[in-house]
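[job 0412] stage=complex_fold ligand=zinc ion status=START
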Amino acid sequence: MTIEELISSIEKESQLLPSAIERGYSGMKKVLASKLKDEGSCDVPHLGMFQKDSEKVKLESTKTKKPAEKPEKDDKPEDKPEKEDIKDQETIDEKSETSYEQLKQEADNSFDKQASLAAIPYLDLSGKNISRDILSYIPEHIAKRFQIVPIEEKNGDLIVSMIDPEDQETIELIKKRTKLPLIVTLCTQDDLNHVIDQYSGINSDVNDLVETSGETLETTEEDVKDEEEEITETSDHAPAAKVVDSLFKRAVREKASDIHIEPMEDEIIVRFRVDGVLRKIVSLPKMLHPAIVSRIKILSNLKIDEQRLPQDGRFQIKLNQNKIDFRISTLPTVNGEKVVARILDKSSGILTLENLGMRGSPYETLKDNINKSHGMILVTGPTGSGKSTTLYAVLDQVKDIATNIITLEDPVEYRMTGINQCQINSEIGYTFASGLRSILRQDPNIVMVGEIRDFDTANIAIHAALTGHVVFSTIHTNNAAGTIPRLIDMDIEPFLICSSVNAIVAQRLCRKICTKCKQEISPDASTKQAVAEEIAKMPKGEQKAIKDQKYFKGKGCTACGDTGYKGRIGIYEVLPVTEKIRLITTRETSADTIQETAIAGGMITMKQDGILKAMDGLTTIEEIWRVTKD
Ligand SMILES: [Zn+2]
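[job 0412] stage=complex_fold status=DONE, emitting structure tokens
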């Protein structure tokens, strides 16, 4: 079938957008042509164009959807836009323009430039909740298909938001349906999805599940074969699947790192860890627990009937073209199995050290050390303090075509190009230690070992560092100075540590103040006192950098879910293993002495780095106290 035939059959079959086609809907042709090229053949059902059987229609993949592809989702005849009426066009525009002025003031700066090009105001919908009444103006399937959502009714006008506000066909269609004058605004795809999700939030899925509880909930091993490993493809008549689907997608969207599904005595509590802090998301009826757990077990290939032992598994989903891994862990509790899913979003690119919050003297010290031709750099901190993210940023900075970089990781959290990444598998004896022995025979320049936690790994890593390799790794200690005694506890000779380790980075992640609701505050006297004491301990140069002591916090807004925080930033201390530190280490191994020597040599501590960041309005003093307390 040629492209022309295909297009004419679409025109005939669906009679979609007749006026658009009359005008020569070149966008659609282009999309079709590129699709055909991509497919390599004219696999019509694959295009989804003519797919009438609704079972196979994907739940959603809104991100890729362009207005020109509208016919793709036409499986419901009532969705078809009506042909007539463009006559009220002028009145809409007139009306809109006056209201635009008010709307513009709310518009976000960066996006606003783009939006104002087309004289369409931009709305920031992040965190905005739309009432059911307003949502009912545009049914969910229309909103999804035409990528337009209702926002608010104001003086008889309906404010709608869309990603392509120049799509007159859609505007006409909505105007006709709602019988209201429209004020069209622009929003981002993420924000649009955020509103679309409010139609069928978890609550409605739960209602479905409660209504149909019984027959359809039975999940069996056979299902696995039919199941694509994508929750976006789950069939409509599996409500437990829908709940899991909603939860997992929402967690990814809210940038959660973990999902906790916790059975209590008479309910299930679902919590997300966002920016390092657990937050309750929803409580579900206890009766849904078996179905939800079974669904997750099926996805991650766990034994459904084993409910007395903990299990681990993983699965991958595709969300908006990104592959996202979930590491699943189940734990039998007295109230049933608790499920925790760790989210590994491999698509969320590598950040630079600057983006992570490295700056000032810690950054200078680290930079001096990562470019050395051999030796070890250790990153330390508790679980979840962003150690591996820092190592990825370091690797990204040092990688080049002349360098062979091999990593040993558990798990591989991000895929990096130009680097050989290996996943260890201790079940078959492929451990950090044995893996390290093998990769040293692979002619590496730089080796990254996920974690040093035993003598074997430490010993081989140190010998690699002594024999001309650069070794990066992480270790569990509270601060940089504590790393040296920790290695000695692992039976490593102090003189070996001194001659192999170049620098030690300790870090924590603290929450960043939400930029949308940030304000200056005046803290209580005790906070000021404690801060002043820390500042007095800083090296003179750092003290001078603080011009005046300002304190900030976020007062809470819709963008940050009323927490006052959004995103995270690292605070660091970088301890260079200098000649002085070497001398001390061979004689005396207490962390305190090493710490004092490092501070005397000009090191600023994590807490001090945090205070500098708080004074700059990046985070709060409370956050610094919280993440640095022992
Ligand atoms: Zn806020």
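The CA atoms of residues 391 and 472 lie 7 Å apart.
[job 0412] exit 0
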